[in-house]
Design brief:
This protein is mainly beta. The protein contains one helix and seven strands. The longest helix has 12 residues. The N and C termini lie far apart (57 Å).
Length: 112
């Protein structure tokens, strides 16, 4: 009987933030030109910038996790703010980037 599930792809890469034995991790960055993606530029207090592509179905939680992984800032010590209009998006961690209507966006990473 070949009911071995070891080779079955359970779609973990389709989740914006997937759970593994090590905890949460981000999906790989989508390639340029992939449909339904957006580019986010993160602006830090020290004037440094990083940029990454995300899927529109990724959540704000994925952005928070990316900032933590890239900057080393512990979660809960910063918030993500849109620039125009100025709005904190960190308060809605399960909201998708599509719901914020992001295609290209700049987000300020501000200390709390």
């Amino acid at each position: 009987d070949d009911d071995d599930d070891d080779d079955v792809d359970w779609g973990e890469e389709d989740d914006p933030v997937a759970i593994s034995d090590e905890g949460y991790h981000l999906r790989p960055e989508p390639a340029d030109g992939t449909p339904d993606i957006c580019t986010i530029r993160f602006l830090f207090d020290d004037m440094s910038k990083v940029q990454r592509r995300f899927y529109l179905d990724d959540t704000v939680e994925a952005l928070l996790m990316y900032v933590t992984e890239t900057s080393g800032k512990p979660s809960g010590t910063f918030q993500l703010m849109t620039t125009h209009p100025r709005k904190c998006i960190s308060e809605q961690p399960t909201a998708t980037l599509r719901s914020h209507q992001f295609t290209r966006a700049q987000l300020r990473v501000e200390a709390i």
